[in-house]
Amino acid sequence: MAGTRITARKRKRIALCFGTDAEGSRRAFTEDLSPMGMFIKTANVCNPNTVLRVELLLDEQPISFDARVMWAKRVPQNLFHLVKKSGMGIRIIRFHNGRDRYMNLCELQDPPTPGGIKHV
Questions:
Q1: pLDDT truncated to tens, each residue of the chain (120 aa)?
Q2: Is the Cα torsion angle 58, 94, 33, 101 positive or negative in sign?
Q3: H helices within the chain, ranges in order?
Q4: Cα(70)–Cα(25) distance, rounded to whole angstroms?
Q5: 68, 47 Cβ separation under 8 angstroms
Q6: Nearest CA to 11 among 32, 36, 38?
Q7: Which residues contact 120 (CB under 8 A, 6 or more apart)?
Q8: Contact between residue 72 and residue 84 where contact means Cβ atoms under 8 Å apart
Q9: Nearest Cα to 2, choosing from 28, 30, 32, 47?
Q10: Where is the PilZ domain (predicted)?
């Protein structure tokens, strides 16, 4: 199924806080971003369909939004750094602030073209 993904993702590591309450009690890092969501690398995953409050910790004002957990992969703590995708994929529901800055973070240098053909 991953081969049929239409949305391009940008690999970027950003510190973040997340949690089910208003204040993000858990800390983690992003692994890749897209305009619709992101992958959070964490050992503290939430169950699919859980709504989270996420805050990206940038130098400027943080970007905060609500997101839904679409899938999660639990990995034992001792294997956390060995497994490639240990964490959860989330889809953004609504932004509280910083939507434009988030979209700028997601911009790709070479946007993919249909069919994977580069035009010269």
A1: 555 556 678 889 999 999 988 767 899 999 999 999 999 998 888 999 999 999 999 887 889 999 999 999 888 777 666 767 789 999 999 999 999 999 998 886 554 555 555 444
A2: negative
A3: 99-106
A4: 20
A5: no
A6: 32
A7: none
A8: no
A9: 32
A10: 17-79
